[in-house]
Specification:
four-stranded antiparallel β-sheet, D-Maltodextrin-Binding Protein, domain 2, 2 domains, alpha+beta, elongated, 319 residues, 17 strands
């Protein structure tokens, strides 16, 4: 990156509005300047601390795996806000839900006109296949142990039938590990004891898997995502995940501008980040510190596994 260009970025960063959500008042969401538009070819480069070996959401266990698969596979329950400072929240695949009086039966109404990236329709039948998979595999039973059965009174309605009262079922169904997958990608298609055979194009999410290598994964904007007509993004055309195991190496790449996001940094990295006018950070729990270029907006938490459909760049400066 040239000194002149870097200097221009410094000036832009110093003039940019600062929002809430970042460590000690640093960074956060801001209203974009003129000329910033969604889908303009922007690529976000994101340094992960570990390899994302498993991209089946149900079997994903590491933070790196969950960060990547969450962009492709959406859980039934989520709350989405549009990029570019749009804070109007919308629900995801489940538009509404309500429990029975005893909290043993929950009704979920589904969003209409949603398709998986492979073209298959998202509907109650697809959810029932996923439920059968969750019930028949140990990983699913560990997350939803009280789930006894499910049925579909109509194509846009699923009822979860529980063996005991569960008051927080919507919160549990928001887990990225319960991302909905296309029945066509499962073997067998019934979902019982099923293996996810086709990872790419198997979700409904804002990004689809484009490239997968030993140290790099590239996801690209899903042009058919249901949230795009609702102005929910994605504002990025691509996200390139790079595996950089050493903390110091991730921090160095962030400081050089080679990556725009450095995941899972130790707490002592904050001192280094504060010394760089182009950088900021957000704190989290077990995930540590997330280092960011100030050009990145829409990432407000280091601990949550969030949809990057809300992320965007005010300035593109990738080496």
């Amino acid at each position: 990156m040239s000194a002149a260009f870097r200097g221009a970025l410094v000036a832009a960063a110093l003039m940019a509005p600062i929002g809430a959500g970042c460590g000690d008042g640093d960074g956060g969401a801001a209203v974009p300047g003129p000329g910033v538009a969604p889908g303009t070819g922007d690529t976000l480069v994101y340094a992960l601390a570990g390899r994302a070996a498993e991209l089946d959401p149900l079997l994903a266990t590491t933070r790196s795996e969950l960060v990547v698969t969450r962009q492709v596979h959406e859980p039934l329950v989520e709350s989405l806000s549009g990029p570019f400072g749009d804070v109007r929240g919308q629900r995801g695949l489940a538009r509404s839900w309500r429990p029975s009086r005893d909290r043993e039966i929950w009704r979920f109404e589904l969003r209409h006109r949603v398709r998986f990236q492979d073209g298959a329709p998202f509907n109650a039948a697809a959810v029932l296949v996923n439920v059968e998979r969750w019930r028949s595999l140990p990983a699913g039973r560990a997350l939803l142990g009280a789930l006894a059965a499910a049925d579909a009174p109509r194509p846009d309605l699923v009822r979860f039938i529980l063996s005991r009262p569960v008051g927080d079922l919507p919160r549990r169904l928001a887990s990225p590990r319960l991302g909905i997958v296309s029945p066509a990608a499962l073997r067998p298609h019934s979902g019982r004891d099923a293996e996810l055979r086709q990872v790419d194009r198997s979700g409904t999410g804002p990004f689809e898997l484009r490239e997968r290598g030993a140290g790099t994964i590239v996801i690209a904007r899903n042009a058919s995502w249901w949230g795009t007509p609702a102005n929910l993004g994605p504002a990025l055309d691509q996200v390139e995940f790079r595996v950089v195991p050493a903390d110091l190496d991730r921090l160095a790449l962030l400081r050089r501008g080679t990556v725009q996001v450095a995941d899972s940094l130790p707490s002592d990295a904050v001192r280094e980040i504060r010394g760089e006018p182009l950088l900021t950070f957000v704190r989290g729990g077990g995930s540590g510190v997330l280092g960011l270029e100030r050009s990145v907006r829409g990432i407000d938490s280091a601990s949550a596994i969030e949809s990057l459909s809300e992320a965007w760049l005010t300035t593109v400066g990738i080496e």
